[in-house]
Amino acid sequence: MKPKIFVARAVFPEVLERLAQHFDVESNQEDRIFTADELMEKVRGKDGLFSTPSEPVTAALFAANPQLKAVCNMAVGYNNIDVAAATQAGVQATNTPDVLNETTADFGWALLMATARRVTESEHWLRAGHWKKWSYDSFTGPDVHGSTLGIIGMGRIGQAIARRSMGFDMNVIYHNRSQLSPELEARANKARYVGKEELLSTADHVILVLPYSKESHHTIKAADIALMKPQATLINLARGGIVDDAALITALRDKKIAAAGLDVFENEPAFNPGFLGLSNVVLTPHIASASTPTRLAMANCAADNLIAALSGKTPPNLLNRDVQPKR
Ligand code: GLV
Ligand code: GLV
Questions:
Q1: Which member of 25, 54, 68, 86 lies 3.0 to 4.6 Å from 93 by CB, making a disulfide possible if both were Cys?
Q2: Was domain 101-283 assigned CATH 3.40.50.720?
Q3: What is the distance in A from the centroid of ligand 1 to the CA of 78?
Q4: pTM flag (> 0.90)
Q5: ipTM of this predicted structure
């Protein structure tokens, strides 16, 4: 008998077909959003769960589904999964690192360029019919080339962003839990390790690419924004909750910094409506990894992990290496 899995959200049909060769698949191609109770019910009797960042995978879900052996998230971030509870419950948990590094770094640049050079703001103005004449100072903003880029969270995505800055003759500083090796720093456009305060007060553009955890909650709050230059921009590619959104809205309204570019929000897909009244913020709906080839690679990576986990192999991207897997 094939193991049973539940695929929590709609996914590429070819990935579902691949999963169906290995598993008895129940899927959610209609892409409904389940309540916690509905999800628990859907996982009933399943050996594996193919999840996304929109499903909270909790201790209660593990307790209600003692047969569950693996939860494979289609994302590099896994703050939706209680990994400690998974380990306790003997459930293998996996993510999809690496396959999205370059695509996510590309989007970090898209947001940085759009924010600094006021791309969406000026487009909205043009579409609204306001363009009657050229003016020397319309939509002027900071430069990107030749400026200092500050990266908080210098993992593989942060390093890929830094590499792209070479063509813009930028000076790169970074802050991270640990300092990179001299070789990796050299490849990351000679990035220089600095303390968080120095980074915030020196950088012209600050980009956040660190994982969310209790420790990184509100890494950027009012006091941190206060350290930034008035012409600086802030880009959040990481997770909602890394930035105190209410504090950022106040700072943008009071022009404490020039602008922000945000792909992630506290409580998304709901978000603080205060952002909508501001012209100096670029808002995108959590799409940094959303190139077609990369989303397919992420789905296949999650499938690879599920196939390995449910055939008694160690999944390539096991998060809880200390788990005692159920067989
Ligand atoms: C997307 O945010 C991811 O974590 O992959
Ligand atoms: C701007 O379009 C210029 O020609 O300087």
A1: 86
A2: yes
A3: 8
A4: yes
A5: 0.62
